[in-house]
Amino acid sequence: MKERHVLVVFPHPDDEAFGVSGTIAQHVQNGTPVTYACLTLGEMGRHMGVPPFANRETLPHIRKQELEEACRILGIHDLRLLGYRDKTVEFEDEEELADRIAAILAETNPSLVITFYPGYSVHPDHDACGAAVIRALKRWPKEERPTVHCVAFAKNCEQDLGQPDVIRDVSPVIETKLAAIRAHRSQTEGLMQAASKRGDALAWLKTERFWTYRWDD
Amino acid sequence: MQPIDAAAVQEALDRFANRDVYIHLETTNGAYASHHNERFFSAGAYIRNVRIRFTRGKITGPGPYRVGLKLQIGWVYAEGLTHWEWTNEGQLLLAGHDYEGKLAVALELSDTPFA
């Protein structure tokens, strides 16, 4: 199905890389415009490159460039950097955060939103990001809300949410996806080296899995 | 110290907001971590009696808890918090104890400098 507009909302540069970038590339290939709202620059990341080429102060600049390069590779022409700080999203005022996302929703009018499943995404920034998207969308009448596809990877997500209901084969765009992953060099180079030694990464990367958000109101 | 009551800690944080307060913030894995386990990389840090002013403080998490204090141009953050205490001097003490009961993290606020 061809979407009208896809809005991706994640808190960190590279949150899209492993689990969503193939889906993004396919939407772009279909001619669907994609907007990516990224809440922070991943300022508090611990991966500094292998060997380290970033430091605590240069990391946000490097990760911003990496994110812009990943967007260029994926064909995302609308990247919004919201200017929050890594590891602090959950401490922001929830209504104000939802206001920022609601403004982007109103402007872009997406038919599909991709974010983290609140409560099932391990990192507090992931959960707070997903919760803010849901909070913003709940201001709309239920029948007017876009579909929300959520990424989740908490240990209990399949137990609580069941199997992911959206399984996408992204093997036709796997080279684009791999290039987007590599663009986040400071964060992914070590992981990709380790994965290539194990030799199991490619099969895993060819499939992307989502849970459609189930409204509770 | 008592196991954290998140609502009570939130109330305490609110009382320190928007005024000058002194902070002690510490993480520690103990001085012997690398001695007991050579594969363990020992690291820690603390600051004490630094004066700050935060506009909003929040405690989150299901326990162990996290606390974030939003400053005019920065942040204070601690995770792994398990216990709290209001001292007779009106100091808010938050601590995180590991599975053996040893201190791993401390975040403390006071209107007057810590001794």
Provide key terms for this protein.
heterodimer, A: 217 residues, alpha/beta, Rossmann fold, 8 helices, 7 strands, 16% strand, B: mainly beta, Protein Yojf, Chain: A, 6-stranded antiparallel β-sheet, 3-stranded antiparallel β-sheet, 2 helices
Write the layout of secondary structure elements.
The complex is a heterodimer of chains A (217) and B (115).
Chain A lengths: L5 E5 L6 H13 L4 E5 L20 H16 L3 E4 L12 H15 L3 E5 L7 H14 L9 E5 L5 H5 L4 E4 L4 H10 L1 H14 L2 H5 L1 E6 L5
Parallel strand pairs in A: 1-2, 1-4, 2-3, 4-5
Antiparallel strand pairs in A: 5-7, 6-7
Helix pairs in contact in A: 1-6, 2-6, 3-4
Chain B lengths: L1 E2 L2 H11 L4 E7 L5 H4 L8 E8 L1 E7 L4 E7 L3 E7 L1 E4 L5 E6 L5 E8 L5
Antiparallel strand pairs in B: 1-7, 2-3, 2-9, 4-5, 5-6, 7-8, 8-9
Order of helices and strands of chain B: EHEHEEEEEEE
Helix content of chain B: 10-25%
Percent of residues of chain B in beta strands?
over 45%
CATH topology of chain B: Protein Yojf, Chain: A
Backbone CA Rg of chain A? 16 Å
Domains of chain A, number: 1
Label the CATH architecture of chain A: 3-Layer(aba) Sandwich
> Quick one: overall form of chain A?
globular
What is the average of the pLDDT values of chain A?
96
As a percent range, the share of strand residues of chain A is 15-25%
Oligomer: heterodimer
Mean pLDDT of chain B: 95
Quantity of strands of chain A, as a count: 7
Number of helices of chain B: 2
Please tell me the CATH architecture of chain B by its name.
Distorted Sandwich
What is the fourth-level CATH superfamily of chain B?
A: Hypothetical protein YojF
Largest sheet of chain A: 7 strands, mixed
Report the major sheet of chain B: 6 strands, antiparallel
Pfam families (chain A): PIG-L
Protein name (chain A): Bacillithiol biosynthesis deacetylase BshB2
Organism (chain A): Geobacillus thermocatenulatus
GO molecular function (chain A): hydrolase activity, acting on carbon-nitrogen (but not peptide) bonds, in linear amides
